[in-house]
Amino acid sequence: MVFCFNPRSGPAALSRSPLFRRLHHNPEYRSCKGRMSAQNFDEDKEEPFRKRDIGNIALKTYVDYASRLWKETDPDARRKIAEARAVTAVQRVEHLMNGEEYFDLVQDHNNPNATIAREKMLEACHMMLNTIQAGSKGTTDDTATLPSISTGTSTSSSAHVVEEASSAPSEESLSTAIATNESDDKKKALKHRKKPRRSILFGAVMGAIVAGWVFSGNYVFTGLFTLMTILGQLEYYRMVMNAGIYPARKISVVGAASMFITALLAPNLHQICLPFFSIATMIWFLTMRRQVSTISEIATTFTGMFYLGYIPSFWVRIRLIGGGQEPTRLAPIMRPILELLGKKASHLPSFIPKSVHLPVTAGAVFIFWSWLSIAFSDVGAYFSGRRFGKTKLGQLAPAAGATSPNKTVEGAIGGCVISAFLATVGAWVQKWPYWAITGPIHGICLGLLGLIGDLTASMLKRDAGLKDFGDLIPEHGGIMDRVDSYVFTAPYSWLVLAYILPALKAIS
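^ that's the sequence the OP posted. Answer follows.
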């Protein structure tokens, strides 16, 4: 059956038709109509919530990641790591007692008490392993996460037979392994082809977000920086704990966060934060620990506050400089955009202070161009190293080469060139004195300090046996993996904007 409807007849003619009256009085039609209208209402109502979901997802991601890092650095995690290390050490001793090297050692020295000592040592090892495993069964199945080393009590001949059997794989296993390797290589190649596009898109999105963050205002800039610092601290201390070192985690996180807040609200007291919390840390080590703290525990605690708190907090002090700055050369282009943003900001609720979205300081413009130079310095170093890289960095600095074997001198030069070019453009835009000289020098310094920050983070990860600090950003690691190049550039940048540029302006 085909129903035709003449649009010229209008709604009134349709309502007078017998078909409409039959449908209108049909209860199934009315219930279906009600469900459809309710569904349309729900779809209309869903749209505003989708916009809010962006903030909710970001907040949930941050809270989940921070909670996981906090849990992985709490005393229970320390106990599990200590148990795993103890089990590994005991199993190694047990394995040594059962190996033929021990029997060769006994025969060489002709010691009659060696057999008795071996039996007592094996008994002590079994007792220690049973004690650790019995203590860990009370809460969770921790034994599943403990490392397993062969602890069998086989004789030397049987061990030799097992070794020969394991060293002669069958043809079927070899063909399976070859096929698996080929498929893995294809997957890696496909992933490698797809990764540049994702990296470029990710970099563009992150660049837009960071630009909005830099110009968002002093409070928002400092608040988000503090939240990032907390994540970076927890990533760092989780890495340190995996190396068997247990620092003062809580007081260090509080101290690092306070340095950013103090840099915002009381910049003149910013320098006292590190000494104050260093003293508080030593008081905690002396009064709250049951045993004498080691040099490694004290040093890693201080390093966390200094490396991830005090040094990067200078970016907040830079953000505060120059509230009534001189307009840049891009002011005529940016004025319509800023006026539009000002109109949008004027509609914000009255309880939000103006400092949330204002002012756009000279420090904000300086941070934008400096961060842009640092980011593209990394990109330039990567492509320059791939295209022209022949001289390994290890030929000039062995420790740096061992830290990052793939880095080359040509890559470092290419990164500095790109950074110098962008810094020169930024110096011209900001009307620096002698911008043709100060711009390139500033860019080269940023490129070199960014490289030092990158190598420092790589050194820490290599010593801890880790590839990345975290897994917050897929294929990009954690917070520390993304901001390592921006750490050591902060004090230098503050010195340039607060003292060197004003002195050059006075001279010119």
